[in-house]
Design brief:
The protein has helices spanning 12-19, 32-41, 52-67, 97-102, 109-119, 148-156, 191-199, 220-227, 255-262, 358-364, 376-380, 382-390, 395-410, 423-433, and strands at residues 2-6, 23-29, 46-49, 74-77, 123-128, 136-138, 145-147, 160-168, 179-187, 201-205, 277-278, 282-283, 304-306, 312-314, 417-419. The chain is α/β, with parallel strands linked by helices.
Amino acid sequence: MKAVSLFSNCGAGDVGYAAAGFKFAVIAEIIKRRLVIASINHPDAASVHGDLRKTWPVAVDAFIETHGLESPALLTGCPPCQDMSSAQSRRGLEADPDAGSRDGRNLLVLPLAHAANELKPTFVVVENVPAFLRRKVRDPSTHAPISAAKLLCRRLKDHYDVYPILVNLSEFGVPQNRNRAFLTFVRKGTAALDILKRSGKTPFPAPTHGGPGLPEEVTIDQALRELGLSSLDSRSEMSARSRNEPMHQVPRMKDRYYAMVASIPPGSGASAWETDQCSKCGHVDVPPEIATCPRCKEPLLRPICREPDGAWRLVQGFRNSSYRRMAPDQPAATITTASGHLSSDRTPHPWENRVLSPAECAFLQTFPSDFKWGDAIDRWGHTPVRKMIGEAVPPRFTELHGRILAALHQGRDLPPTIDYNDQHCVAARTKLDA
């Protein structure tokens, strides 16, 4: 079953579809280093480098060159979502179509639509953050306000029926809370669509974890113990990296930040905002809004900054999530591109004094053990690698999804599948139609 990938990132999500039987003939990505890693993991695919607003015809021609008029079974695409992320300060403008259209990334659904209408795949799969379903832009043709997702649906409606879904991927054995929207378009006139219509099903896998009669969601404690990597410590360069595993390394922390993380009790899921520790006086009783020690007047081991007049104050930030250890008895927080930053959402390790390493982040993203990184960590450093990992679609989910699509394409009995009127689908349709 031939497939084409647009906005391929490092190719990790497509590895899951490949495990389900799809073979990628074309991969396309604007960032060269990401395309390098994707090519290592999809060595038989033609690589298209560049901005897909300009290069989508090159991707189409690359498929036609080797497969003629044959249509691919699958077209996947995960256009950039940074402007719609819950971590973005611009998120409050998501109902403003002019603000949405100023960021061209919000219109990157259009190359997907162009490629789909040219190649005519049986399935088109698009993944993004939940705000994708409601992020308003201006329709380039009519200038009317419309969500980016709805714009894509409109461009494909003549030839495809769309099945949207909102899911937390922890429900599928991914050991993190990762809320995502998926759109699966199924081509009209195909046996696959007939099967879905008759059965009242959707082209999405049924949850495997967290529901009645199912195993509990996988916690970060379970995941990290299964991975079994060596302990690290951010106090020094030597203790912050593994001798045997290049991907298992973390940034060295400055002394104050190290002390701040070390003051958070291991395994507590607590944050530095709650600590009552002074580096000189030890434990002190202070209200949560206080920045300095009442005894020595030095700053507490809390997130603080200094005013122009020299006074200390608490940092203005996300106090519920920043500088907070991951709770070991729960799935990890969402693995993002900022996994190396203490100030991001629940990035400190549950019991060690550090953030998670790229190897651990990749494991929590369910990258398979045989995923190939080449010399990426040595060549580019951990930051670009963390960004690739954070923007990936977890392969555990894409493999489950791919099995459904493969069964539909080949006319086989469906694995456990979500019903059309399931709450995951109803919620997504409601947001998409709003």
